[in-house]
Write a structure and sequence with these properties.
elongated, mainly alpha, 6% strand, three-stranded antiparallel β-sheet
Length: 232
């Protein structure tokens, strides 16, 4: 019996996973076997990733989103936004997107491990897969990446509530900053448009630490002081 609420389980059951078609063709034995494997493991991956997202939300991600809604802005001061509606909308909508992305990655990981460990025995395959799937590095990556994204999304909610028209990308510009994020530092775009990196908010990539700052309008003064990364 699943401990996931029926309404959410119905949404999870409707997720369609899209496999990566790039790279080398699958060996003939995998082409024949894969539909059976996918049918067996797909829903397990999806449900497990929903539970992971729910735990991460309860542990730290909701707090990050709330911090964004109460965070700093420049230009006209944006009042803090309260209430649970925006947070729950983010939890559901982004959660479903994240579950799909994580599950697609898990499926590709499983397929790759089957190819790499075919003929080596069950123990070799199990050890290789669990090292990547269940290890602490995966959880750390998800928690840190989603913490940054949630806080920036909370800032957008607050900015829109205040009527801010623009948003600015700020990068820590330290030794851990990537060239793509550094290139967008101080970039200003309309609140409902993408930055030049093709995303609506930081992070651009896993472990991104960049910060979104809302700007009231074209006449607002831009604070050029160094920015503190969202998470170290």
């Amino acid at each position: 019996m699943s401990d996931i609420p029926k309404e959410i389980q119905a949404m999870l059951d409707g997720i369609v996973l899209e496999e990566d078609q790039d790279g080398e063709p699958d060996p003939d034995w995998l082409v024949a076997l894969w539909p059976l494997v996918l049918a067996k493991v797909k829903q397990g991956f999806i449900n497990a990733n929903w539970k992971l997202w729910t735990k991460a939300w309860q542990d730290v991600i909701q707090n990050a989103f709330d911090m964004g809604m109460a965070g700093d802005t420049i230009g006209t001061v944006a009042p803090a936004v309260g209430g649970m509606d925006a947070a729950m909308q983010y939890f559901m909508e982004h959660g479903m997107e994240l579950v799909k992305t994580l599950s697609q990655t898990d499926i590709q990981l499983l397929k790759g491990q089957m190819v790499d460990n075919w003929g080596k025995g069950e123990d070799a395959f199990k050890a290789a897969f669990e090292d990547q799937y269940s290890g602490p590095a995966r959880l750390d990556k998800i928690y840190r990446t989603e913490y940054c994204k949630a806080q920036n999304e909370g800032i957008v909610v607050r900015a829109k509530a205040a009527g801010h028209l623009l948003k600015m990308w700020r990068c820590p510009n330290d030794e851990r900053s990537c060239p793509e994020c550094s290139a967008m530092d101080f970039e200003v775009v309309p609140i409902d448009e993408e930055f030049s990196g093709g995303v609506m908010t930081p992070g651009l990539h896993p472990f991104c630490r960049c910060v979104l700052i809302s700007v009231a309008d074209e006449n607002s003064e831009i604070d050029e002081s160094d920015v503190e990364p969202i998470i170290e």
